[in-house]
Amino acid sequence: MPRNHEIDYKIFGEEMQAVEVELDPTETVIAESGSFMYMDNGIEMATVFGDGSGQTDSFFGKIMTAGKRLLTGESLFMTTYTNHSNGKQRVAFAAPYAGKIVPLDLAQLNGKVICQKDSFLCAAKGVQIGIEFQRKLGTGLFGGEGFIMQKLEGDGMAFVHAGGYVLERELGPGELLRVDTGCIVAFTESVDYDIQFVKGLRNMVFGGEGLFFAVLRGPGKVWLQSLPVSRLAAKIISYGVGPRKEEGSILGGFGDLLDGR
Question: How far apart are CA 145 and CA 50, in angstroms?
């Protein structure tokens, strides 16, 4: 039997998307603070300590889940939306910037997906939002996401947000994909994640793509984004402060070599 609440949903929009979740009586959806858009009259909102999954009732357990959320840069609190009426009610959540909302049916993904730290939008109650430590030193130092990534566990629906266009790839056993470190949105647990130096001194210095690739090795499924928010923010800053820097130029700063900007 599924442990998570079973929810129906519909995604609206193209570049700026929102997801509308339909809740049966007593069903609940959990969401990050700041993502709420609208809700029907029969839905009640509550702020809870921890990840809102309801998997632990002890105070110590809640402290642990809240602490894990702090490590991924999120708030100590989550918001729950519960249908207390006798009929179906709807609640919607909006994407924070231009891109796509990706629905993840965890029951079809072996119960676990690893994703970038700030991508989680909302999920059915029962889905656990935790942390995933990168065990390899090189991946943690140069992988773009650091040692800590977010993990979603359970058998319900979860929704993450990504920048630009989202590309899904199904990797076969041993199949390898080299990716810009900032373009990874999520991948299933079976995918091996590592980093690799860009080959060639000229490519490193003048290529404008950084010193490292992320290397994803199958089997498993991966989701990639065409516009990481860090790249978008860097472009906006470069146009708003000081003279414009040409892409790929060594004068752009050696720091940009490390993150691909």
Answer: 22
CA atoms of 261 and 253, how far apart (whole Å): 10
Tens digits of per-residue pLDDT, 146-197? Answer: 447 889 999 999 999 999 999 999 999 999 999 988 899 999 999 998 877 6
Amino acid at 14: E
Q: How far apart, in whole angstroms, are the C-alpha atoms of residue 29 and residue 4?
A: 10
pLDDT of 57-89, one tens digit each?
555 555 555 455 555 555 567 899 999 999 999
Residue 191: other Cβ atoms inside 10 A: 21
Euclidean distance between CA atoms 116 and 78, whole angstroms: 18
Tell me which residue has tokens 């089997």: 219
Domains of the chain: 8-242 (3.60.160.10)
**Structure token pair of residue 117:** 């730290």
Distance of alpha carbon 6 from alpha carbon 15, whole angstroms? 27
Which residue in this structure is represented by tokens 């993840």?
104
Cα 76 from Cα 64, distance rounded (Å): 10
